[in-house]
Amino acid sequence: MSISPSSSAQAAREGVARRLRDLRRNADLTVTELASLCHWHHAKTSRIENARTPPSPADIRAWCRATGADDEVQDLIAASQDAESLYREWRQRVRSGLRRLQDSYVELYRSTDVLRVYSPVVVPGLLQTEGYARALLSANARLLGVPDDADEAAAARLRRSRIIHEQGHRFVMVVEEAVLHYRLGDADAMAAQLGHLLTAGALPAVSFGIIPMSTRERTLWPQETFDIHDDTLVSVELVSAEVNVTQPSEISLYLKTFEQLRGMAVYGAEARALILRAIEALD
Question: Domain 89-280 maps to which CATH number in 1.20.120, 3.80.10, 2.60.40, 3.30.870?
Answer without folding.
Answer: 3.30.870
